[in-house]
Amino acid sequence: MNFNEVRRMAKDLGVKTARMTKADVIRAIQRAENNIECYATGRVNDCYEDLCLWKSECLSINNNGKAILK
Question: Each residue of 21-43: pLDDT tens digit?
């Protein structure tokens, strides 16, 4: 999902996205939906949330060696 789609989703949930990174916006969406704010964190190593909208992208970030937040 591209950044503009993520921002639209956040806006629909009432999340303000000014000056936020894509990862921050996704975690804000997770928070707004009462889910664990785990996108691009170390939790990816123990993730069993198979129905998560963000899982494949999150795993991809981890597998590409990009920084994972703790």
Answer: 999 999 999 999 999 999 988 88
Span 48-58, pLDDT tens digits: 889 999 999 99
Based on the number of CB atoms within 10 Å of its own CB, is 46 exposed (0-12), middle (13-18) or buried (19 or more)? exposed
> In the numeric block, which tokens belong to residue 26?
């996704």
Task: Phi first, then psi: give them for residue 21, nearest 5 degrees.
Answer: -75, 165
Q: Which residues are bridge partners to 69 per DSSP?
A: 41
pTM: 0.86
Cα–Cα distance between 53 and 50 in angstroms, integer?
A: 9
Burial 5-44, CB ≥16 within 10 A → b, else e: ebbebbeeeebebeebebbbbbbbbbeeeeeeebbbbebb
